[in-house]
Amino acid sequence: MVTIRDVARAAGVSTSTVSRALDERLPRSRSATAERVREVARELGYVRDPLASGLRRAGTSTIGVIVPRLTDTVMAMLYEEIAAASAERGVFAVVASTEDSPEAERRAADSLMRRRVDGLILTTARLDAADAPPAPQPAPAPAAPEGAAAPAPGRPPVPRVLALRTDGLHPASVGDDLLGARLATRHLVDLGHRRIGLVGGPEHASSALLRHQGHREALREMGIEPDPRLMTGDSFSMEAGEAAGRRLLALPDPPTAIFAVNDNTAIGVLAAAHQRGLRVPEDLSVVGYNDIPTVSRLPVPLSTVRVPFDQVARGALRLLLEEREPGGPPPVLTATPTLIPRASSRPPRRPA
């Protein structure tokens, strides 16, 4: 990427001169120096980075990332992508975890605000609005010494965007959860499965609800009426997936395949199947969601839906400084997932 320093070196001027000459918010200078700077910038292919320049003007070139927990591989992967994309722009990303608790999220936001971050990316959005934390407010400006002039007004509210989850109120960068669930379900139906269990996630997470919705829609499109008895689960953890798997596999007429809306819960389902002496995929097909690195290295590699976390991260960064008309709907950037078939899914041995 061509930087302002590259342009300054080639034009034989200072970086501040380049910055002024290329700043579209300022009156266009017609001086020979400014014209030369613009010509050099065009020749080098310089493109202004609005995120980096905007955050530098704001103050610390630091953004805060709030996640439910870093022990969740999905959240760790997304944070690493955000940190890498930020570093490319000269911005530092710092992370805080909340255990998916609204009160802990408030404390994390306050802590990051005290460190005067220039923006927040949250993966903790909840649809139960009564528990949702208010938008964090900027840290107050320090008091002026006695006899000194009053301090300038505080900084404007810090931008905040969401990633992976939405709440309908804030800008968000997400994967297409409806599409991903439809891909997973269609894959199992195309293999010949008709009794397909669903291991869902928490009801406050938009990602879980949309994957549940996509699963039901795909079944109906294929002429299969969704059966509520085949739908269970309320968390993204392996333990929750194992408990949900045991419930489904203990039914008098158990499913021949299970779609888990998260790879962790899919691993829990595999454990439940093993406890009952079932073989995957001979006795039970399983499909997960996210494609965390572990699942391709299991004894039976897991079929799953791959989320492009790099695209989600870059989208969230772009939204931090995107200028929007007041009163308009919050923008949502949606990245397209991909089905990754592996050994854990195959046609059923017994009639579906």
From TrEMBL:
Keyword Transcription recorded: yes
PROSITE patterns noted in UniProt: HTH_LACI_1, HTH_LACI_2
HTH lacI-type domain boundaries: 2-57
Region Disordered, residue ranges: 128-161, 323-352
CDD domains: HTH_LacI (cd01392)
Signal peptide span: none
Classification via PANTHER family: HTH-TYPE TRANSCRIPTIONAL REGULATOR GALS, LACI-RELATED TRANSCRIPTIONAL REPRESSOR
Protein name: LacI family DNA-binding transcriptional regulator
Source organism: Streptomyces lonarensis
Origin organism lineage: Bacteria, Bacillati, Actinomycetota, Actinomycetes, Kitasatosporales
